[in-house]
Amino acid sequence: LFTLERNSQKEQVLAHGNLCAQGPPKNAGYNSNPVPVMTQTESRDKWGKKMDFLLSVIGFAVDLGNVWRFPYICYQNGGGAFLIPYVLMAVFGGVPLFYMELALGQFHRTGAISIWKHICPMFKGIGFAICIIALYVSFYYNTIIAWALFYFYSSFSSTLPWTSCDNEWNTENCTNYFGKDNVTWTNYSRSPAEEFYTRNVLVVHESSGLGDVGYIRWQLMLCLFLIFTIVYFSLWKGVKTSGKVVWVTATLPYVVLLILMIRGATLPGAWKGVVFYLNPKWEKLKETSVWVDAAAQIFFSLGPGFGVLLALSSYNPFNNNCYRDAIVTSLVNCLTSFISGFVIFTVLGYMAEQRNVNVEDVARDKGPSLLFITYPEAIANMVGSTFFAIIFFAMMITLGLDSTFGGLEAIITAVMDEYPDTLSHRRELFVLGLVVVCFLGSLSTLTTGGAYVVKLLEEFGVGSSIIAIVFLEATAVSWFYGINRFSNDIKSMLGYTPGLFWRVCWVAISPAFLAYIIISSLLNPQPLSLFDYKYPDWSMTVGYIIGASSFMWIPIYMVYKLVWTPGSLKQQYFFKSVTTKKQTEGDSYSLRFTK
């Protein structure tokens, strides 16, 4: 059916024939037009340095969730004992999926949409679903960065505005206990930091809920505009510019974390927080929810399935050691989460000492509240509070920007690789249009009820949808494309075949890991609430529609291919895809079709 012409002495493994089955069936309505492949030529961007790529991947994987989500989940699920399921889920689930995506992107050198032409065309809807989810993330995630920018600006004051109860936004329930004796703390008491966050930044008291989100806060809109301006000028020229920006945005958080950890360790009562953080509760390991939380945490922390790893690794040299990259960046990510726990809990121990209560009484906040209420409250009462507030919120902004760079680059690479003739010379305009769409889509999160929209998008816009998508991705690569073929692809890049451990994980353990998370989340749905607001039933319906709006493109595209591909149903199932050209540095191969 075809003849392979080799124009180099180096051996190169090519994907060939039917990528959903071994060999093409007869009279299957074979498309004689070759499928275009984006190869690493001079026309495709390349990373300026290897560290540009590593810092970009680390910057994407290490985000705000490492600082707020891991410490909370760790102490909630048994402290030090939680590290056992966390490490096991990382080794058998998270890291293999991380490695798989880096290898796929580097070998095929294309984005999340067009890569399915070379793996298994009927799963191409996965690429569209990934782009839609990335849009949903940009609608709410950048708003959280805008909140941090608002705090950053407010920190340039000799007295931080969330230190007292004498401001116009404070209520009679505001209670300042720092530096005071015999202060009574009741269920109705609110700290100055909590009222600054809820009544001055979010202004949620002027909204009754999702049914009445209120007006747009111009202060937050200005902050968001500045964030997207930074994002645009970091991404408009491709990885050569974003690769330089991450030298600041990916390294600054580690400098700040080190400073804050040293400062936290010197605070009175810090040891109480560390003991509470790491004290193992072995009986917790018997609870299924602990293992589910460990699996979900490592998955969302490493971030496979968002199309970012595919996009970033597609700009690597063909023979780059993606295996080593996967191990190094995964270790850095997990260690960052662990160290962040010390940064947070030394401060919580200090607050417990000041309130004269147990650590668990001040460790109830989770999610953004941990970063926008609990930690600022502690910072405000330290010596040098202004300095620590400025560097803390600068760290939050840079942590968020890195993840935004990765998320939008996933969309940019996917769409531009799918439509190269139209967009290859119009990157600046396309990126501008994408940033404008993301900004307009974020406007609802800037209202007085915007925090409720953020929570809804975070829960349903990503949630189970992205896990189901990665499950299908892992299944398609391991079972349809074939684990042997995928292993040969890696051998052609690295010079050796992945070991038995990796192949078993890709074929069985990692898909089972994802199925376990999906089934557990469906069997044990958690009621949605924020502050004192309980989400109504109709909002749950809206949430499920948001989740389905991304995932639905997978079956829709499968049906489309069945209807429009010639041949019998069995023949249509084995859709054709041929890699027509794969270039390495100094190598060139072509595939010629003959009748």
Automatic annotation (TrEMBL):
Q: Where in the cell is it found?
A: Membrane
Taxonomic placement: Eukaryota, Metazoa, Chordata, Craniata, Vertebrata
**What membrane topology does the annotation report for this chain?**
Multi-pass membrane protein
Q: Which SUPFAM superfamilies does this chain map to? A: SNF-like
Task: Tell me what this protein is called.
Answer: Transporter
Q: Name one GO molecular function term.
A: serotonin:sodium:chloride symporter activity
Q: Which InterPro entries match?
A: Na/ntran_symport, SNS_sf
Originating species: Cyprinus carpio carpio
Q: Which UniProt keywords apply?
A: Disulfide bond, Membrane, Metal-binding, Sodium, Symport, Transmembrane, Transmembrane helix, Transport
Give the signal peptide, or none.
none
A cellular component annotation (GO) from this entry: neuron projection
TM ranges are: 53-71, 83-104, 125-153, 215-233, 245-271, 291-315, 327-352, 378-401, 429-454, 460-480, 500-522, 542-560
Q: Which residue pairs form cystines in this protein?
A: 165-174
Q: Family per UniProt?
A: Belongs to the sodium:neurotransmitter symporter (SNF) (TC 2.A.22) family.
Which GO biological process entries does UniProt record here?
A: amino acid transport
Q: Which residues bind Na(+)?
A: 59, 61-62, 66, 301, 333, 399, 402-403
Pfam families the record matches: SNF
